[in-house]
Design brief:
CATH topology of the largest domain: Recoverin, domain 1
Shape: globular
Strand order of the largest sheet: 1-2-3-4
Structural class: alpha+beta
Number of strands: 10
Radius of gyration: 21 Å
CATH superfamily of the largest domain: EF-hand
Strand content: 15-25%
């Protein structure tokens, strides 16, 4: 499909989510730039494929959760149905297209004081479970449930998934080093709840691996991470900040 304003620019649309309640789509130019989140509102997209337009219509029309979806969300989160209904109403008001894209999420993080783009993207990637480039309501609820009401094990798994940058199931020193560098840019030298101060990211990374990497292979598995973290009073105290 071509942009009517500039025939040299080719436009393609893709379905962002196939969830039956939150089906949305996005359109890009041939440079990969996001042009619009709702093709129906832009004249140059009126000739988009029918299935793309239909997907967008369905996403915009879903004004409330179906009973079975509500029950499923309650079952897999720490929220009650009344809370979920209120959350969904607010989510649809602020995100009528049915999802939060990366730029919107970054702005949300900046407002919360997380100004480092690397950290913003790490958190986004944990929220975006299906890696489709957008956070739908189900993903939003799942992450928020863990962050605010999850037990220590759930929160540690969330943190592990954030630290595991390449998604290979382990944390290596390179990944942890990148994350600690960003934390230091954000808050400066880290002082733990017990009063210990780390002057450099590398100092913290080395101690982290000394404690967590039980078999000394330079990689930390989820089980190693949980076992080591649950024995560390500073980590446990830190998890309480999100309760």
């Amino acid at each position: 499909m071509l942009d009517s304003r500039n025939p040299a620019v080719e436009i393609s649309c893709d379905a962002l989510s196939q969830d039956k309640n939150l089906v949305t789509s996005r359109c890009f130019d041939n440079q990969g730039s996001l042009l619009v989140k709702n093709p129906l509102k832009a004249p140059e997209f009126q000739n988009a494929p029918h299935n793309v337009l239909r997907s967008t219509e369905m996403g915009a029309a879903q004004s409330q959760l179906k009973k079975e979806e509500l029950e499923k969300l309650q079952e897999h989160s720490h929220f009650q149905q009344k809370e979920l209904k209120a959350m969904y109403k607010q989510f649809r008001k602020e995100q009528p297209q049915g999802y939060i894209d990366k730029e919107e999420f970054r702005e949300m993080m900046r407002q919360m004081g997380v100004v480092d783009s690397f950290l913003q993207d790490l958190i986004f990637n944990v929220f975006d479970e299906d890696k489709d480039g957008g956070i739908n309501f189900q993903e939003f609820v799942a992450a928020l449930s863990v962050m605010t009401r999850g037990d220590p094990t759930e929160k540690l798994e969330f943190a592990f998934n954030m630290y595991d940058i390449d998604g290979d199931g382990v944390i290596d020193k390179r990944e942890m080093g990148q994350i600690m560098e960003s934390f230091y840019k954000l808050v400066g030298p880290l002082v733990t709840f017990s009063g210990k101060k780390y002057e450099s990211p590398s100092q913290l990374v080395e101690e982290f691996f000394d404690i967590m990497d039980k078999n000394g292979d330079g990689k930390i598995t989820l089980e190693e991470y949980k076992e080591g973290a649950l024995k560390n009073p500073d980590v446990i105290q830190g998890l309480k900040l999100f309760s």
